[in-house]
Write a structure and sequence with these properties.
Blueprint: H1 6-12, H2 15-32, H3 38-43, H4 46-61, H5 65-77, H6 80-93, E1 97-100, E2 109-113, E3 116-123, E4 129-130, H7 133-145, E5 149-154, E6 158-159, H8 161-169, E7 172-176, H9 178-185
Parallel strand pairs: 3-5, 4-6, 5-7
Antiparallel strand pairs: 1-2, 2-3
Helix pairs in contact: 1-4, 2-4, 5-9
Length: 188
């Protein structure tokens, strides 16, 4: 689904907005349609009702802002070994096979699931901005192992614009911020 489609926007919005649209469209159907077609007009709001239910379920099960902030603080304070252990536990909990590689290389983990292999590089550097060089190294490791997908997990700092473009163009998914916190919360 396109990230800018109406239903994608509603899934990211508070759940009650979808239900308010159902009420608004139902009232409009009752006021504007002939009596024989009001039921059809009201039934036409069902997709908005379904999206509202999905958004409510997601928001009900999403971690609170306090829990996310605590997870961010924990990520910042962990030593490399603890960070790697949490990542491994999160991936195992989601059904991945995890092989930890020697530290200091371009990739830190090999993940396998459903016959697909992904190389993952987890970085805790305290640099404000990360450049393209570590992504080039990960891409070279992906080519050497004939792997099509890579993960670049960034605990601190941000990626430069060039690095983001490189990652996008070479099949590397960048995981940082709330996405990284959600991944680690999945291990608990």
């Amino acid at each position: 689904m396109s990230p800018n489609s109406l239903f994608s926007i509603l899934l990211r919005s508070p759940w009650w907005i979808s239900f308010a649209l159902v009420g608004l469209f139902s009232l409009a159907a009752a006021a504007l349609l002939p009596r024989d077609y009001v039921l059809a007009g009201v039934l036409g709001t069902f997709p908005f009702f379904a999206v509202g239910c999905v958004a409510a379920w997601r928001q009900w099960h999403a971690p609170s802002a306090t829990r996310m902030a605590a997870t961010h603080a924990q990520i910042q304070s962990l030593p490399w070994r603890g960070f790697a252990d949490l990542l491994e536990a999160a991936w195992r909990a989601s059904g991945h096979g995890v092989e930890r590689l020697a530290t200091g290389g371009a990739a830190d983990f090999v993940l396998t699931k459903d016959g697909q292999t992904v190389l993952a590089s987890a970085r805790r550097w305290k640099a404000a901005t990360h450049g393209v060089e570590p992504l080039r190294e990960l891409h070279a490791a992906m080519q050497a192992r004939e792997v099509q997908a890579g993960l670049y997990l960034l605990a601190q700092g941000s990626l430069s614009d060039n690095a983001r473009v490189f990652a996008r163009d070479h099949g590397i998914t960048v995981v940082q911020g709330d996405a990284l916190a959600l991944l680690l919360l999945g291990a608990r």
